[in-house]
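Milestone 3.1: sequence recovery, worked example.
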């Protein structure tokens, strides 16, 4: 589900950027008539694409266990570019229009960077469960109740969020610390998984 959504999001972003690019080029090269014609022709498409772009983007955000700081920067850039683009094309202000196109391109670059950073880790949505089953099930079992080598029953844990994060990070007795093995984001994600899917179940 999330992967399909990610692909649609990319498709919308690419289409959006293409439309935007043509408009910027036409504006910069003073082809006013062509620009008007292009705007008229692509009006509906542009509306659908912008809506799809935002809707899939928002959906993907809700699926992210941890929202990286860069993501906020990206969203701020996209949001900032919208009024700039509207004013820029209305007033045929080349500087504003180009600047807003530039913002979109930069935010696209940021998205790729966020993706690269994630590539070494795990993908969105499935990550908490995947990390748990990969690294923790051995002693705790998939349901958290196995109790191998004295492992605590996670479904009965009394620890709060910070307590769980602390144990995973620092370890305790036979449980080795996971700092250095898992990133703070991964520890956060696996903690959320324990709290929502194992604790009290
Ligand atoms: C080598 C076996 C082993 C592995 C692997 C392991 N644990 Fe543990 N875990 C333990 C043991 C043993 C304890 C009990 C420590 C104690 O209190 O003495 C424990 C305790 C915990 C607790 C505290 C529960 C409580 O209520 O006190 C949490 C949370 C926890 N583990 C999470 C994890 C997570 C998440 C992973 C994977 C990233 C993991 N563990 C991997 C053995 C393991």
């Amino acid at each position: 589900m999330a992967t399909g959504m990610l692909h649609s999001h990319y498709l919308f972003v690419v289409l959006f950027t293409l439309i935007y690019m043509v408009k910027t080029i036409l504006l910069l090269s003073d082809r006013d008539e062509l620009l008007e014609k292009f705007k008229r022709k692509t009006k509906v498409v542009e509306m659908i694409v912008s809506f799809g772009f935002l809707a899939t983007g928002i959906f993907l955000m809700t699926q992210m266990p941890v929202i990286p700081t860069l993501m906020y920067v990206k969203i701020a850039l996209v949001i900032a570019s919208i009024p700039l683009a509207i004013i820029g094309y209305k007033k045929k202000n080349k500087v504003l229009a180009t600047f807003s196109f530039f913002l979109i391109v930069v935010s696209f670059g940021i998205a790729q960077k966020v993706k690269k950073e994630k590539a070494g880790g795990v993908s969105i949505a499935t990550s908490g469960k995947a990390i748990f089953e990969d690294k923790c099930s051995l002693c705790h079992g998939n349901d958290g109740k196995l109790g191998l080598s004295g492992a605590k029953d996670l479904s009965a844990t009394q620890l709060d969020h910070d307590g769980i994060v602390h144990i995973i990070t620092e370890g305790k007795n036979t449980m080795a610390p996971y700092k250095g093995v898992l990133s703070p984001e991964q520890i956060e994600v696996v903690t959320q998984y324990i709290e929502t899917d194992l604790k009290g179940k």
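Helices lie at 2-28, 32-63, 69-90, 94-119, 127-140, 161-170, 184-198. Residues 127-198 form a domain with the Cytochrome Bc1 Complex; Chain D, domain 2 fold (CATH 1.10.760.10).
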